Amino acid sequence: MSRTIEDRLARVTFDDRGLVAAIVQQWDTREVLMMAWMDAEALRRTLTEGRVTFWSRSRGDYWRKGDTSGNVQYVRGAKLDCDGDAVLISVDQIGPACHTGTHTCFDADDLEPVAGRDAAP
Amino acid sequence: MSRTIEDRLARVTFDDRGLVAAIVQQWDTREVLMMAWMDAEALRRTLTEGRVTFWSRSRGDYWRKGDTSGNVQYVRGAKLDCDGDAVLISVDQIGPACHTGTHTCFDADDLEPVAGRDAAP
Question: Where, in this chain's numbering, is Mg(2+) bound (chains A, B) (predicted)?
Answer without folding.
Answer: 81, 83, 85
